[in-house]
Write a structure and sequence with these properties.
Helix content is 30%, strand content 24%. The chain has 6 helices and 10 strands. The chain has helices at 81-89, 104-118, 132-143, 161-168, 189-201, 219-231, and strands at residues 9-11, 14-19, 27-31, 55-59, 63-68, 71-75, 125-130, 150-154, 175-181, 205-211. α2 (104-118) crosses α3 (132-143). It is globular, with a radius of gyration of 17 Å. It starts with 8 loop residues before the first strand and ends with a helix.
């Protein structure tokens, strides 16, 4: 599989794994989660039923973090791993609903510079991500003056509720797809439901796929993303 992966290329301040298709076809951008890399979500382009010629971009996190002895991963912003491990050991979860995680602002700045370098109008892009990448893409979608063509929130969570409520009120026409495992030990299920309710209260329309699993992307989610892309009428 590795031999089939493209070399990372620079796009603005970030490196990305990129599949160039038809210039007139849709562009889908997916941000990976904490400790992964641009190649983590890369295989999704083979199973998501997107239109022929779709352009794919998988950004690589700008932070390098130690994952295991001799192995580093990438991230968009730091995570307090000790606090996360304590929460998982006690069966609870980290609650980010009252804060903007330190480092998110810088990640958003770099991601927006990447999008500017891409040169495609924001409203023509489908953006999304997994876990930390879902938080980043949701934050970008809500803060941007214009709405993306689509937003996929895979195992994300609610951040800075008061601000997101205010921003979401201006995005009533935006649609989204969201998924979350009911037994997710990393990002709790209830905050994901709270995020879903926030988006719906703002007038947005979207499907929420819950599944009997953890922090992952099972086939139910792939099928849901396929439904969403068809609904976008690309």
């Amino acid at each position: 599989m590795y031999s089939q992966q493209p070399q990372l290329e620079e796009l603005g301040p970030l490196k990305v794994a990129r599949i160039k298709g038809d210039p007139n076809a849709p562009t889908i951008i997916l941000f990976h989660g904490y400790g992964a890399s641009a190649y983590d979500l890369y295989p999704l382009h083979q199973v998501i039923d997107a239109p022929k010629g779709t352009n794919w971009i998988f950004p690589d996190g700008h932070l390098e973090i130690p994952i295991a002895p001799g192995y580093n991963g990438k991230a968009w912003f730091p995570i307090d791993m000790e606090a996360l491990q304590r929460a998982m050991m006690t069966g609870s979860f980290r609650d980010f609903s009252e804060i903007t995680p330190p480092g998110l602002d810088l990640a958003r700045e770099k991601a927006l510079s990447m999008l500017e370098a891409l040169g495609i109008p924001f409203e023509k892009l489908i953006i999304g991500g997994f876990s930390q990448g879902a938080m980043l893409s949701t934050d970008i979608a809500l803060r941007n003056e214009k709405s993306p063509r689509g937003l996929s929130i895979l195992s994300g969570t609610l951040l800075n509720k008061d601000l997101w409520v205010e921003l979401a009120a201006k995005k009533s026409s935006m649609t989204f797809f969201q998924s979350h495992g009911r037994a997710d030990p990393v990002l709790g299920y209830q905050p994901a439901k709270d995020l879903n309710q926030l988006l719906r209260d703002a007038g947005m329309v979207g499907e929420f796929v819950s599944f009997p699993g953890g922090h992952e992307i099972p086939m139910e989610v792939i099928q849901g993303m396929n439904r969403y892309i068809k609904q976008l009428g690309l």
